[in-house]
């Protein structure tokens, strides 16, 4: 694969919080269609790495490029537009708006771009249908199961057809059955070409959904490994 | 207890913004409450306070000097708690034109000093007379008061005015030394009594006077005036302020209580999560309640102490302006009970409003408290949000419109705060417009220039202005008609009206009626704008009468009155009622000069008796005209009369101060609501930003949520303010025995209403802007990571 398929490129990224070094000299590439899992113990810098790539935080040193865009050079508004169009995010605790039903939670992502309500709802319904929860479209988050909520969150993340789907402990708040469903879902998405970056503690999730696992410790990448032959391997795989 | 204190201190430190908001809201609310209470208190009993401060006499008794012995009078103490006197007294005529208004004899009393056990005079300007030829005038301490004179003729002798003193009880018009009064042929002896017994009614005071004067020769007691007479006269002036002060006072109290309640209970509710954590750590429910009470009371106590001080300081100039002009400045200040309310009741209110939600937290389990600490998950506003999600609006706007429905209680409090703020602004705007219109009308009518010829013994200045320092008293050589002609001939003059004030007996009435005889261009000077009913005079047998005079005569428009002067009579028809009289003296009936000529054909009116009102052509220079008058005839004192009335200045001052304070407090209420909403919805905000909501969209969403409340509060507050304006201002005028022309009340026009409609919006947006921008700057990673 050529370098123009590189979705994410981190060059010698360092992030400090007051006296704490969260990331130290991290360089990483993720290519189109890859599914990469970032693993490591608590406090190793996984979430910081994810935040850097999502444009939620800025590096103290080094550069973060996503789709060729140097995120360190973007102001808050440009970063918001970047997230809107390039990134889809899935959180451990779903982060759905409780006063909107599933359909409107999903449609919200498109409506923020200026898409009118009707086409946004049509596209949201398609996604819910693809994810198997179209019948729950009018249900509010409080009445959905954990697995269903995470599916709604995935649908919302996919709403604007992001180049990169970021998942932060996507099965962390789910029981094992719901966790399995979400793993299947992520695997399916990756198999149809969705680039994935998953931050997780869960070795099972990593080995099932990712083609490559990046192990972090004390803010540094200590190991990269290719682990799942079923999962497409990106061009930058260094395994 | 140490654990409670430590946890409370940590909570105060951790929630700096909330602590600041609670402190600031309590500070401003206490300031508002203090201003309101001090004004309400001052307006409730200003006479009593000033009377007590001066040790005013319950009775002012005047004895016939020929029938009593001063030593005997001083020795009489039956029922007397304190007495001053005997002071010898003379009734003397002042020189022509020295004091504005109809000429009248002055009561001149000989006193060695302004102090004493009774009637402690407020010598507010100059010094007490020490020798012959010196006099102190009785005038209320008011910088904008009547024109001041430097010399005065009393009984044909010239006196130098060495000071101004004020006796609330009106025990004299002027004071001289005891030796001086002896030379003025005193006819009476004055005694000032404070009685030990009942002084609540005229009958009781009459009985007290009878007791202390028993055994005196018949006719020795010439007159005894109870203090209640003065009190009733002043009540009319005081009553003007009461409805206005009460309106602002009540608004201030309600807004402050609403906001403090909202802010404090919100602070506790938003801390439920923390309460849950404390419980999980082993704090007992009582300790948790104590932590939260301390947490809100620390900033509240600081805010209320500072607010009390600021409130007292802010109220003082308003009191001084409002009451000193009436001579009621003495003893007026912040009442101890008002200060006690600021220092004790406000923290009590804070504790109470914090206690209610804290008790709710007390009853919740740790887990319930933790889950109750964030935004409501279901229920309120869900249907609204659903509908808005499909609306043809930018999503940030539709999300913002739905936010207030999530917390209906807090939303209601916020709307109430904006509503009351807008009501205050609307009322203050209406009041300002009405007063400005009245001032415009008054200025047009009374202005622009007054000309008072000197009588050869003194000079006069304009209202609140001293006479020209280089002016030497001299008499003009011109006649009244020549002065009028001179004024007409000077460049710039458009209209000239000579005005002569006299007290004229009226058939069927025991007291003479104040009359201003007018001629010249009076009909073209705009007095018609002051009419509240009827029309302006068209014939010499018609008169227009101020409301106050009509009330005192018990007459109305259409009635007739017969003037009886110098043995001749003429009947006049009252064709109009006006809010005020000519710009000099007390309100008086307007009567055509031809009537004076008919009643008193031999009377030669000296120019010094006449006040000449001059209006200039558009664009003419008032100062240049005044200089031209002085240059043309140095015996004519000309001055600029166009100025805002004291009453307008006073009312506008406190209405502006209170409207600003209440608007700020209302905006702080909005600020607090947004802070709480953002705090509770920080997770949602983080998520929205993570999916691409721009900072501008966040600001739009938050501002929209409050703009809606601002518009609702404004829509409800404007009619309330208009209602208050329509009811309270006429009541104020009625209390002043006056009335307001319809034109001055007709202030609600589209541009004003449009601006007022923006007031609620502005209050809401100003209150929401800072926290909205803070919300836009929320660090997504931090917010979402804290979950």
Summary, kept brief:
The complex is a heterodimer of chains A (about 240) and B (about 775). Chain A has about 240 residues and is of the alpha/beta class. Chain A has seven helices and ten strands.
Structure description:
- The complex is a heterodimer of chains A (239) and B (787).
- Chain A has 239 residues and is of the alpha/beta class.
- Chain A has helices at 46-54, 76-86, 102-111, 117-130, 146-158, 176-191, 203-209; strands at 6-17, 20-31, 35-39, 61-66, 69-70, 87-90, 164-168, 195-199, 212-217, 220-226.
- The longest helix of chain A is centred in the C-terminal third of the chain and has 16 residues, at 176-191.
- Chain A is globular.
- Chain A starts with 5 loop residues before the first strand and ends in a 13-residue tail after the last strand.
- Chain B is an alpha+beta fold and 787 residues long.
- In chain B, helix 9 packs antiparallel against helix 10.
- The model of chain B is unreliable at 143-147 and 374-378 (pLDDT under 50).
- At the A-B interface, helix 1, helix 2, helix 3 and helix 4 of A face helix 12, helix 13, helix 20, helix 21 and helix 24 of B.
- Chain A: Keywords: ATP-binding, Nucleotide-binding, Transport.
- Chain A: It holds the Pfam family ABC_tran.
- Chain A: It comes from Luedemannella flava.
């Amino acid at each position: 694969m050529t370098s123009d398929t590189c979705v994410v490129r981190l060059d010698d990224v360092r992030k400090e919080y007051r006296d704490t070094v969260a990331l130290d000299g991290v360089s990483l590439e993720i290519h189109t269609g890859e599914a990469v899992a970032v693993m490591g113990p608590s406090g190793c810098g996984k979430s910081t790495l994810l935040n850097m790539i999502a444009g939620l935080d800025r590096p103290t040193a080094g550069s973060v490029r996503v789709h060729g865009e140097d995120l360190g050079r973007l102001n808050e508004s440009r970063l918001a537009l970047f997230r809107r169009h390039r990134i889809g995010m899935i959180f451990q605790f779903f982060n759905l708006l409780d006063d909107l039903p599933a359909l409107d939670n999903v449609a919200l992502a498109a409506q923020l771009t200026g898409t009118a309500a009707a086409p946004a709802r049509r596209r949201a319904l398609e996604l819910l249908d693809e994810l198997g929860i179209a019948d729950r479209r009018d249900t509010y988050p409080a009445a959905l199961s954990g697995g269903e909520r995470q599916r709604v969150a995935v649908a919302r993340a996919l709403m604007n057809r992001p180049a990169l789907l970021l998942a932060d402990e996507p099965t962390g708040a789910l029981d094992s059955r719901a966790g399995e469903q979400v793993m299947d879902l992520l695997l399916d998405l990756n198999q149809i070409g969705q680039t994935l970056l998953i931050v997780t503690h869960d070795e099972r999730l990593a080995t099932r959904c990712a083609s490559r696992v990046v192990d972090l410790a004390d803010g540094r990448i200590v190991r990269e490994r290719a682990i799942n032959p079923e999962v497409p391997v990106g061009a930058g795989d260094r395994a | 207890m140490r654990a409670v204190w430590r946890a409370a201190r940590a909570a105060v430190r951790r929630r700096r913004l909330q602590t600041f908001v609670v402190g600031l809201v309590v500070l401003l609310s206490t300031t508002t409450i203090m201003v309101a209470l001090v004004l309400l208190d001052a307006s409730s009993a200003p006479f009593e306070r000033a009377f007590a401060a001066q040790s005013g006499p319950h009775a002012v008794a005047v004895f016939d000097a020929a029938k009593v012995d001063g030593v005997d009078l001083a020795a009489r103490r039956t029922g007397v708690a304190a007495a001053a006197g005997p002071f010898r007294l003379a009734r003397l005529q002042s020189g022509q034109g020295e004091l504005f208004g109809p000429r009248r004899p002055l009561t001149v009393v000989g006193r060695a000093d302004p102090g004493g056990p009774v009637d402690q005079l407020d010598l507010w300007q100059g010094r007490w007379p020490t020798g012959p030829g010196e006099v102190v005038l009785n005038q209320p301490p008011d910088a904008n008061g009547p024109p001041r004179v430097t010399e005065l003729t009393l009984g044909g002798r010239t006196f130098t005015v060495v000071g101004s003193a004020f006796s609330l009880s009106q025990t004299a018009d002027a004071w001289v030394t005891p030796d001086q009064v002896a030379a003025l042929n005193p006819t009476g002896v004055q005694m000032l009594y404070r009685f030990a017994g009942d002084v609540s009614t005229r009958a009781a005071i009459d009985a007290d006077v009878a007791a202390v004067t028993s055994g005196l020769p018949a006719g020795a007691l010439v007159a005894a005036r109870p203090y209640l007479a003065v009190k009733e006269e002043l009540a009319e002036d005081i009553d003007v302020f009461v409805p206005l002060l009460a309106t602002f006072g009540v608004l201030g109290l309600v807004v402050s209580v609403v906001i403090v309640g909202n802010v404090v209970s919100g602070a506790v509710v938003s801390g439920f999560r923390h309460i849950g954590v404390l419980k999980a750590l082993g704090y007992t429910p009582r300790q948790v309640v104590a932590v939260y009470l301390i947490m809100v009371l620390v900033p509240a106590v600081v805010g209320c102490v500072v607010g009390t001080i600021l409130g007292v300081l802010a109220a003082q100039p308003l009191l001084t302006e409002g009451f000193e002009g009436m001579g009621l400045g003495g003893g007026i200040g912040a009442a101890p009970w008002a200060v006690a309310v600021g220092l004790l009741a406000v923290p009590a209110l804070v504790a109470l409003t914090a206690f209610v939600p804290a008790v709710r937290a007390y009853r919740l389990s740790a887990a319930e408290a933790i889950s109750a600490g964030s935004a409501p998950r279901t229920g309120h506003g869900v249907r609204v949000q659903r509908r808005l999600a499909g609306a043809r609006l930018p999503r940030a706007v539709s999300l913002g419109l739905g936010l207030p429905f999530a917390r209906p209680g807090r939303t209601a409090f916020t709307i109430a705060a904006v509503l009351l703020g807008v009501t205050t602004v609307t009322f203050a705007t209406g009041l300002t417009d009405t007063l400005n219109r009245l001032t415009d009308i008054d200025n047009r009518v009374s202005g622009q220039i007054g000309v008072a010829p000197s009588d050869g013994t003194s000079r006069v200045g304009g209202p609140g202005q001293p006479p020209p320092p280089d002016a030497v008293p001299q008499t003009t050589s011109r006649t009244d008609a020549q002065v009028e002609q001179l004024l007409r001939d000077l460049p710039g003059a458009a209209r000239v009206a000579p005005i002569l004030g006299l007290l004229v007996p009226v058939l069927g009435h025991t007291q003479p009626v104040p009359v201003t005889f007018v001629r010249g261009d009076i009909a073209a000077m705009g007095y018609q704008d002051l009419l509240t009913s009827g029309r302006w005079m068209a014939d010499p047998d018609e008169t227009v009468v101020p409301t106050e005079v009509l009330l005192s005569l018990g007459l109305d428009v259409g009635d007739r009155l017969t003037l009886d002067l110098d043995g001749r009579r003429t009947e006049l028809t009252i064709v109009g009622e006006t809010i005020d009289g000519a710009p000099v003296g007390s309100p008086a009936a307007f009567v055509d000069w031809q009537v004076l000529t008919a009643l008193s054909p031999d009377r030669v009116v000296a120019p010094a008796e006449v006040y000449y009102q001059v209006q200039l052509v558009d664009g003419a220079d008032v100062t240049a005209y005044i200089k031209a008058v002085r240059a043309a005839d140095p015996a004519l004192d000309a001055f600029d009369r166009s100025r805002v009335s004291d009453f307008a200045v006073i009312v506008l001052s406190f209405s502006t101060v209170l409207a600003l304070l209440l608007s700020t407090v209302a905006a702080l209420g909005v600020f607090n609501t947004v802070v709480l909403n953002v705090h509770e919805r920080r997770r949602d905000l983080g998520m929205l930003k993570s999916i691409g909501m721009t900072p501008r969209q966040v600001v739009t969403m938050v501002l929209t949520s409050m703009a809606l409340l601002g518009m609702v509060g404004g829509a409800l507050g404007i009619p309330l303010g208009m209602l208050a304006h329509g009811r309270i201002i006429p009541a104020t005028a009625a209390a002043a025995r006056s009335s307001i022309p319809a034109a001055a009340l007709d202030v609600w026009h589209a541009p004003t209403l449009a601006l007022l409609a923006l007031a609620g919006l502005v209050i809401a947006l100003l209150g929401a802007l800072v926290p909205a921008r803070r919300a836009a700057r929320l660090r997504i990673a931090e917010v979402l990571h804290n979950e």
